[in-house]
Write a structure and sequence with these properties.
With 107 residues, this protein is an alpha+beta fold. It has one helix and four strands, in the order H-E-E-E-E. Strand 2 and strand 3 form a beta hairpin.
Length: 107
């Protein structure tokens, strides 16, 4: 085999490797897209503790249509319901990096 043939064989091997990697990534992307397209079946829970107050949490529980928002407060080591309501839509967002608040920020 000449040097040119060796180089060509190496390039073919690399091409096959890259094509296989692209196929694996395409399959992963397709799986993630399918997962995102499925309706959410698990509750979404947001929990926090305000300064000098009891811990609290919001639970968004999926229903056939919409969500049930449940507000809870921790009292005597037990979560106690403070209120609930049906909601048709909610979303979670994350502030852009430049506007994210840090401890000590007051806006």
């Amino acid at each position: 085999m000449t040097d040119l043939e060796h180089t060509l064989a190496d390039l073919r091997d690399r091409l096959e490797s890259v094509q296989a990697e692209v196929r694996r990534k395409d399959e992963r992307i397709a799986a993630l897209e399918a997962e995102l397209a499925e309706p959410m079946t698990s509750p979404v829970v947001v929990q926090w503790t305000p300064e000098q107050q009891r811990a609290r949490k919001l639970v968004f529980k999926p229903l056939e249509e919409g969500w049930l928002r449940i507000e809870l407060e921790l009292r005597e080591s037990q979560w106690r319901e403070r209120g609930r309501e049906r909601v048709t839509h909610f979303s979670l967002t994350n502030a852009p990096q430049e506007t994210a608040l840090r401890p000590g920020d007051h806006r």
